[in-house]
Amino acid sequence: MIRREFTIAEGTILFISAYVLSAGLGIIRQALFNAEFGAGMEASAYYAAFRLPDTIASLISGGALSNAMIPVLLGVRYEEGDTAERRLVNLAATTLTAVVALIVLICIVFAPFLVRFVIAPGFDSATAALTVALTRIMLAQLILVVISSVAIAVLNARNQFLLTAISIVTHNITMIGGILAARFIPGIGIYGPTYGVVGDALLQLVILWLGLHANRFRLRPVLDLHDAQLRRMLRLLTPNGLSSGVNYAGGIVDTAFASLAREPGALPTLFNAGLLMGVPLRLIGVALAQAAFPRIAASAARGDWARMRKTIGAALAISIILAIGAALMLALTGRSLIRLLFERGRFDAAAGDLTALLLVVYIAGLPAYVATEVLTRGLIALHDTQTPLVTNCAQLMGRIALIWVWLEPWGVVAIPAAFALTSALESLTLGMVLRWRMRANVEG
Questions:
Q1: In terms of residue numbers, what domain contains 166?
Q2: Would you say residue 28 lies in a domain?
Q3: Total domain count for the chain?
Q4: How high is the pLDDT of residue 61?
Q5: Pick from 202, 52, 61: which is nearest to 112 by CA?
């Protein structure tokens, strides 16, 4: 069962189911967190502490690594066989683990500077000091995350999505445990869910390790920086990772501006609105694109451009239609959901009202968000990682400019408004470039 290969439809259903269950656990986690910590200083420090580890992880792990590894793994397997593929996996795991370990060490040393001048310049000294402490703890998860990301790439390249889906479902379990520990054990406080973040990364690695074992992959340290396939993978990973990093850097930008916004509790309410907006994004855009990508990449590797175009077109149409429906549903029910799920304990009605307003603005861009997931993977399958990087950088610069202009008159609403508008422009640009690239391949 672990090694079963799934079709695109089966994989999409599996990932949607996983994201639904994960979202359910995420809502439970967030409701418990809001009740325990509200929108106060500890919550603000916790949300801000997420930003640096998440941004680093996006550069050389997670979806960026899978997107870079899968086309190369498929090419190596078709051309050189399983032995060469296993060697490449060990090379990737060894090289990236060493790089991440060095980055983690540097960030631990410079965390006070990064928090004070980059992540949350508007925090007072006490909140900034707590943010530094939490950031250093969360950085520890990155070693585990990069190994897990290699495992996900190996399994997804084989269309073996089961363990990847299970690891998605279990994502919030130890974080919930950490919040409950903070509630019932005196003195733990915000450190409970913080250590829960590290626990989640460890649990995910254990689950994915079973898949590597079932496919007879044995991770061993192998280092050869001159290996041609490793260099090929790194050439894809560098712009792809930077592109993902720009996305997460946008989170740092949002955090910095939210710390300067006039509304009390701006950062926690922004985080909660983003959490709800992320549910349909993961269920529709990420799930469908993740399931379709191995077959899109396989079609590109074989030069089957007609099948590739058909697969991308179907995925794009389905994701946009579903996103429009989800956006309308959230616009109608968002305030009631927030009242039902989040308004308890220290998270009051005023925080709920602001969260609902931010959610409505965020979801205006939902069709663009899901389209970008599909379009980006189409370009990556063609080994074009430069275009997503350039468009992401342009989108981030546009966001910063718009927030800078809108923050004073609009308050924290400027942040999701800028995100929605620039994301729509980014999606249109990606679509035009992908259409041109596909036409060039067919005519060539």
A1: 8-439
A2: yes
A3: 1
A4: 64
A5: 52
